[in-house]
Amino acid sequence: MALLPDIASGMLAWALGGLVWFVPGWGLAAWINIAGFRESPPWRRCAIALCASISVMPAATYIAGRVLGPMGPWLPLGVCWVAAMVSAAGRPGIGGTRREWLTAASFGGGIGLLVLLCLSDIRWGDHLLVNAAMFDHAKHTAVVASLSEWGLPPVNPFYRPGHDFPLAYYHLWHYGAALVDRLGGSALSARAAVLGSAGWAASGLVSLVLLLADERCEDTSRGRPVRMLAAALLLCSGLDVVPWVIQQASSGPLDGIIADLEAWNEQVTAWVGQVLWVPQHVCGLVACAFGLLLARRALLDGGGLRAPSFLAGIAFGSGAGMSPYVFMATAGASLVWVIWEARVGGRRVPAVAAIGVSALLTVLVPLLLEIRSANVVDPSWISVDIRRFTPIEGLIAGMPSPARAVARLAALPVSYGLELGFFALAGVVYIRQKRPELTANSGLRAEVCLAGVSLLMAALLRSTRLNNDLGWRAVEPAQLVLLLWAADLLAHQRGVGPRGAKRGWSEWGARHRLLASMLAAGLITSVVSVSALRFAEPLNILLLGPDTLAELRLRDDQRRVHEWIRASTPVETVVQTSPLAGDRHHDLPRCWYSDRLTALGNRNSVVCFAPTPAALEPAVHGMFATEEWEDVEREARRWGIDLLVVNRTAPIWTRNASWVWTQEPVYETPLTRVIAVGDRAPALGAG
Description:
Blueprint: H1 3-21, H2 23-32, H3 42-68, H4 74-90, H5 98-119, E1 122-124, E2 127-129, H6 134-150, H7 172-184, H8 190-216, H9 223-232, H10 241-250, H11 271-277, H12 279-300, H13 306-322, H14 324-343, H15 349-373, E3 382-384, H16 390-396, H17 401-420, H18 422-434, H19 442-460, E4 461-463, H20 469-473, H21 476-493, H22 510-544, H23 546-568, E5 575-577, H24 588-594, H25 603-609, H26 616-623, H27 629-638, E6 643-647, H28 659-662, E7 667-668, E8 672-676
Parallel strand pairs: 5-6
Antiparallel strand pairs: 1-2, 3-4, 6-8, 7-8
Helix pairs in contact: 1-5, 1-7, 1-8, 2-3, 2-4, 3-4, 3-7, 3-8, 3-12, 3-13, 5-8, 6-7, 6-8, 6-24, 7-8, 8-9, 8-12, 9-21, 12-13, 12-14, 13-14, 13-15, 14-19, 18-21, 18-22, 19-21, 23-24, 26-27
């Protein structure tokens, strides 16, 4: 059964990931007392350590790797490991009871295990059931494998026109996962490192929410209930289940179960979905929000401002390298907030801003130069375009542009309302109650800036490379603020703390009953979302029958083939799988399982990560269309291809006189043949 080995390797990666995603932050926070680390209780120290690691280590290891070479990233990690050991030996950075530490470790391990259960493959006989998020994580795995094997600057794993080609992608989260892969050696694959690091991304998000909720509570007696409410609300989604049910009801049984509840509209991805689909953007949010927290502390605290301001800039640099879309929204909001604070008399604002921006540029400049050097970045990758509301797009398609813009603007409240659900209503109620406090509350001003700029940017801008990732991810800071407001609102309505007696739900008015109903719908949406992600495929087997069973047998076959390639070939082997016209996913098994480069990846990967392959694309497609081995071998040598992988879906598979059947395979199954090019065959097994 594939699930158990995946869980075992994933938990090993999660454990080793603590040396990258947790321990360094502990050492750093204990060393310079980040956010009051030394005086904090155990849960808060764990939260600070995890947020500090996610915020500082990606930028620190990246800069060290660029400057010092392959051994560079281990320098900042090693220094922080030593600081953590010194802290543990000296005890002031530890404290707490054994029960508290066991609880924290169990909580983190439990989150990592839940993520693995959602994302790991399930083998059923000779059928392989994958989850829908595999289509994103396969690309992440290929990038992590490339960084692990080839280091910085990253080599493009999806495009290799006879020589290594640079990767134009934000990859700082992937670099952290690659360091986990390197720590595990041959015991880990890049895929396991990705899954283990996704578990740490989930723990980082929980830690951020606990930390920010605690920072907002001036009344310490209300701190724990508000923190627990905020953490619990991470399980709540919007109202996506409603259009999902409508879609399912309007489609026939042969259309199967829709695995992605967010696909009905320009998505505002719920927290559970973000952790399972895009952990790099989650970590980008953690870094940017923690950087903003440090900047605010530098502005308001009476102590020194250099260290928190510098770390805030480094955190923003990490955020930019893990999620430029979240960074753009947070940076824009920070600029508005800084101007606001300066106008109300913030005397430390210029110094904090200067130090933070200087630190940010030390990370951002080399990263941008590296991405630009690939020469595949479209200068028009961002466009001004009002957020689309899918249900009306068919109705307004024939309208003039101004009319379409007006219609989309009018639909924005409905779109955001459905996507945010309970959080949208809670945010409106909360800000109406707190509006008089804006002039006196710097934290509330920061939150208003963050929510407003984030929603505005996601509504008016879109990225054009493939999907609207800018519109989908720039809204994350607003989601975070709305979650904190909702937790505060719920705690207040329940009368938590000594200021009021608890009130039952039955005593609430119509507005509060509506909030409760939307909260329940959001929780149902999350349950359905995870269930669809994990179980849509086996349910579709029952609905769709033999064709789907054959596809799942091929998936299991492809996993076995690419795992053999990973175990039996040198790391420099270039693998080319048979492309299919119009198929966006044919190359995913190579990305997910083999950790090897390819000459030409699947269409989605090429659009995202490579230039238009004018000469390479027809050459590769031609290799799998001709029957003559001499022609195939000549083209393969020209483009540096070592292994050709052909499965039964390729049209050439049925031509008995073609090279697929005349050449001796180095590995074969009933559904796939692996054929070596020229003198590559003797090297097989060297890996």
